[in-house]
């Protein structure tokens, strides 16, 4: 059976192994959009996107060519802890398997080719990885391609609330990563009405804390959050949406906050906040019922709550505070 980080279960929609003397920028965007990934029942496996974002960040910083596995391992492990699924995983899988997508190469002291997915083998053979030479050439010819590839990877695998933090973590300049392609290959269209629909259903107040700030008649600091991430087939429906303030939206997408049985708020035991503000705005939420939605609006569907709890929420929930 394939492990998370392997590419066995997600089909390739075009032959990424074909070699062309010149590959257009759009072809590289398609390759970024169609990375082969382990996939089963909505389980997150962002190993390859994280490694590719990391490599793009290194290339942008210093046009780094070879990246030793011994150096990449610790950085990628940290990225997987912060932005990957809650389960334990290894950076060795994407380091080896990203080769199959035509954007990455692995070499050892014995020449081209990866020794496999074993951490010991990668270390012992002094494995190094690098962006495929054709991709490096394309990035030099067309500097905006780097930001467009980053945008594809961010949009397809992570919620918007985490994009800037992730850019900072991999060393990508945010303004460059924000440079979007006219269309993102493989990307479905969002429902522009979702934000207004969700905010109206929750009567323009944060479902966690009740914040309801306005400037004139315009809400400020309130956002429509997807429970099941849009990047993972989360629908733009009321029963997959929450009205949250900016702070609690970020904490919800980072797995600090969740939603349990009875639509009560979960707070991760991994969250540490010693200040009065941290206790009042986060820790004290444990066990509280959600605020809203108003009568007649569908509450969050159990399937979406379950997905968030298994794929995003981190650790065990704190006990309810009396």
Automatic annotation (TrEMBL):
Keywords: Endonuclease, Hydrolase, Nuclease. CDD domains: HNHc. It comes from Streptomyces violascens. This is HNH endonuclease. Residues 206-259 form the HNH nuclease domain. GO terms for molecular function: endonuclease activity. Residues 28-173 form the ScoMcrA-like DNA sulfur-binding domain. InterPro entries: DNA-SBD_ScoMcrA (IPR058813), HNH_nuc (IPR003615), PT_DNA_restrict (IPR011396).
